[in-house]
Write a structure and sequence with these properties.
CATH topology of the largest domain: Growth Hormone, Chain: A
Number of strands: 2
CATH class of the largest domain: Mainly Alpha
Shape: globular
Number of domains: 2
Helix content: over 70%
Strand order of the largest sheet: 1-2
Structural class: mainly alpha
Length: about 550
């Protein structure tokens, strides 16, 4: 038994450390910044709930618009390929947008009256929500391509590295990318636990002061991503010095370090289609036309599908069938609607989940998700996407049942029969402990397969187009969430800030049917997509 345990630790933990390379660190720092972005999540939830009169359906619609920049990852990724030598500029610009978004929230929390003199608080909040993802998608497009560049093709003696070894390094790189993102969430969860410790009984003014400090602390996010790019530049210069010492000319060094194996030519289909997409999105978004979100989604889906069809020509027939089957399954799995903000409001109002408890719950989620990446490492490497999604679909369905049960009083029954031990918080923690490790399992195999299969001259473009398609699924998820919140109306209690008078009473009666509907859709849609791909003769990575 001790030998078996050691072998498992060696294969899943120590081996990963042995495969780590210094060249992996720059993109990992950019990914970690994306994970740290969750630092303001709890604050945002309570700020919206307590200070903004926005409905669950409106927030779901806002989530749709916030997801649109991720569909724009396609032209941004192609731009990264075209200006590869100067890609750091996109990270700097993204960092500026993220800093601006955080600065708006700092102003709203710390100086709301001054902000209100310029435009309504709700408008400022919407602007902040929309600026942030634009910054993150720019940085993410660069980081994705950096992960491909970080895996060497030649060893220290200039000999080609075997294909199996390169494939393993790509898997390791993508695994570490997920670890960096989730590691960032662990760090911010720890920060939230510390910041919200003992906040349950604080006056509202003191809680607002904590909110403000957290947003100020979040300014470290753009600094972290910029530091990753600066480190990447330092490593490039160091490698240039090593190659010069080996006798390579300046032209050879420049080609080895700064140029892909093949020159990237501007793709008129991607640039033209993206220009149409941007013009359509901005025009419809500003016009306020009815069903504008649906029109944008349909147009986005069509444009990105055409781009995928064009890029599939760069692959062999077998690889093209595999990639097509993979993106269909992942799209269906990520397009599942959620219950929306109403479920969080219900947990806060009815179950008494305060900032301190939610921060501890986030810490458990992040820590166990990180542990799950190691626990399921071999499972991710050895199983197909279809098998992984089947497992995740069944597991997620089963793990949604306790929340449905709590809506109908399960926690009251268990607390009564266990002397108060198994209450709502106990069930939430246990459910989170079981569900958290599953969160990132489906993405690592797909990312590793793309990294290993992407043509060298289109690495950022390939990542971006596939990511745009799968991220578009999240926009579809937000649309589905909006429709469900329109079908099942949920309202939280809203009080006037000055008088304390209730302006909107709480109403969670329709949350139960909403949770059941979300669970059934989560079970049926992925299984139907897998069945469809198999009937069509497609494979998955």
């Amino acid at each position: 038994m001790p030998n078996a345990v050691f072998r498992w630790i060696d294969r899943n933990l120590l081996e990963l450390g042995r495969e780590m390379r210094l060249s992996f660190l720059p993109p990992l720092m950019v990914y970690c910044a994306a994970g740290v972005s969750g630092l303001t999540g709890i604050v945002g939830t309570f700020f919206v709930k307590d200070y903004l009169g926005l409905s669950a359906a409106f927030l779901a619609a806002l989530g749709f618009w916030a997801g649109i920049p991720w569909a724009l990852k396609m032209p941004i990724g192609h731009l990264v390929d075209l200006m590869w030598r100067h890609k750091a500029g996109l990270v700097y610009f993204g960092a500026m947008l993220i800093a601006a978004s955080l600065a708006i929230m700092i102003g709203l929390i710390g100086h709301p009256d001054a902000m209100r003199t310029v435009m309504p608080v709700e408008a400022w909040f919407v602007l902040s929500v929309l600026l942030s993802p634009v910054g993150y998608v720019m940085q993410d497009a660069v980081a994705d391509a950096m992960t491909v560049e970080a895996v060497p093709r030649l060893d220290q003696y200039g000999r080609p590295i075997p294909a199996d070894t390169v494939r393993l390094m790509h898997t390791t790189m993508q695994m570490l990318g997920r670890v960096a993102i989730i590691g960032g969430t662990v760090l911010v969860s720890l920060a939230n636990v510390v910041m919200f410790q003992g906040s349950e009984g604080l006056p509202e003014a003191d809680k607002v002061a904590i909110y403000l400090r957290i947003y100020e602390l979040a300014l470290i996010i753009p600094l972290l991503s910029v530091s990753g790019v600066l480190l990447g530049g330092f490593l490039k210069r160091r490698e240039a010095g090593r190659l010069a010492a080996l006798g390579h000319s300046r032209a050879e060094i420049d080609r080895l370090l700064h140029e892909p194996e093949e020159k990237t030519a501007p793709n008129g289909w991607i640039l033209g289609g993206s220009a149409v997409f941007v013009a359509l999105t901005v025009g419809i978004g500003l016009s306020g036309i009815e069903y504008g979100q649906e029109i944008i989604f349909a147009a986005s889906f069509t444009i990105i599908a055409v781009m995928i069809a064009r890029l599939l020509r760069e692959l062999s027939a077998e690889a093209a069938r595999t990639l097509l089957g993979t993106v269909i399954i992942i799209f269906a799995f990520r397009t599942l609607p959620g219950p929306g903000a109403g479920a969080s409001w219900w947990m806060i109002d009815e179950l008494g989940f305060d900032q301190s408890f939610l921060s501890r719950l986030d810490l458990i989620t992040s820590t166990l998700t990180l542990a799950g990446l190691f626990l399921f490492r071999r499972f991710m490497a050895e199983k197909s996407i279809a098998n992984i999604v089947i497992f995740l679909t069944i597991a997620s369905t089963l793990l949604s049942l306790p929340i449905i049960g709590m809506f109908h009083g399960l926690h009251e029954w268990t607390a009564a029969h266990t002397g108060g031990t198994v209450d709502a918080r106990f069930i939430a923690i246990a459910n989170t402990a079981l569900e958290s490790p599953l969160g990132q399992v489906s993405m690592v195999p797909m990312l590793a397969w793309i990294a290993n299969s992407a043509p060298p001259h289109l690495k950022a473009t390939f990542f971006a187009v596939m990511a745009s398609f799968t991220n578009l699924a999240l926009s579809a998820s937000q649309l589905g969430t909006k429709y469900l919140n329109q079908l099942y109306t949920i309202a939280r209690e809203v009080r006037d800030a000055a008088s304390g008078v209730i302006t909107t009473p709480a109403d969670y009666t329709e949350l139960g049917p909403l949770l059941v509907t979300v669970t059934l859709l989560g079970l049926l849609l992925p299984l139907a997509a897998i069945g469809l791909t198999r009937l069509a003769g497609l494979r998955s990575a």
